[in-house]
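input
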Amino acid sequence: MMFDLAEIETLRKSLDTLAKGFSDLPDFGPDHDYAAIGAVLNEAAKKMQENFPYHHPLYAGQMLKPPHPVARLAYAMSLWLNPNNHALDGGIASSAMEKECIANLGSMFGWEKPLGHICGGGTMANLEALWVAGRLHPGKKIVASEQTHYTHARISDVLSLAFDEAAVSADGRMDVDSLEKLLSNGDVGTVVVTLGTTGVGAIDPLPEILGLRDKHEFRIHVDAAYGGYFHIASKLGADARRAFDRIREVDSIVIDPHKHGLQPYGCGCILFCDPAVGNLYKHDSPYTYFTSDDLHLGEISLECSRAGASAVALWATQKLLPMNPGGEFARSLDKCLLAARALWQRLDQSDSFKCLMMPEIDIVVYAANGDDITDSSRNAREIFARAATQNLHLALIELPANMARHYWPELTGDEETITCLRSCLMKPEHLDWIEQIFSILETSAKS
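output
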């Protein structure tokens, strides 16, 4: 089932509890036409049927993970007040919850008192990180890898910061030699290290990059928007584990709770190791700050109004599912890692596909067999379409042809890129559906 009626009853009880806190107010009754509201809601529900089944294990395309029921219900419950976590006046309780959430996320990465807050998403969180980077190292450039999220180049352009890219190895990880050549010019202020690229799920070699920081002066910003929660997983490979074990040594981290943190959109988060960067945000807005000398979250955010509901939902989730190694939440991440490896192994034994890099997290990238690049790319697009007719929804990714040739040396063709298939197995339930997913892929390849 898509939903459980017990959720509705649970929400009703929480709303009763919320209402008791305001029972001393004079009563008033808003006049709403619920018949009309119901008709519009039903019309919206019918339109929503046009979506892919993001909640189902047969959806293995883009990075869409259903919120946990506690997050969904806490978010909905808070909307009856609709708090705004810009100033304490607009979100007294939800601001306190947000600060607690930030402390818990910082603790997960080994930071005792980070400065941070919830953002509308990873893009806004990364913008804040690069804005701070530009303020601290004015005139110096931002460097990321060729496989980093495209928004880093775009954000740098918005902020009028110079931007450059380091090459990647065949597995999609930042090439340290390429990075060192860029650093040797002395004009790099910040290096963006991605722990979980959105394309192939690569984990950049953070320990080696930290070693370069000992020779060159630069900040390290970790974009862990997608992969950050895997820090507490127990099934990471050796290289990924080494990278995550050093994450506490960086300057800033972005993580998106609306990905593996089981939250509704949009819920990103920026964390700074040094709380002193908060001085860069100073501004005056006296009409919103008048009830308390405590820190207003709007004082350390480029955004103004922000949904307090996001903080309530994240707080409730962290309360129910603490981010402890070996706990229920961590075990669900391990299932995602195991699912990706299981699918990769099945595909690697198939004559219909050519597996590329072994997944470091839960993203599997594979080419369709073919006579050359053109044939393989065409087959990938056809498999993508045929699988969808059997309710298996995948994604396509365009990769440098040389990256594919590293795993498929006999691949011929002059094209610079190849279209591959990509499966994002970010639901723990995917582990129980690997055989069915593989069966549909095989059928789709041989049709």
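quick obs: The chain has two domains: 92-320, 328-446.
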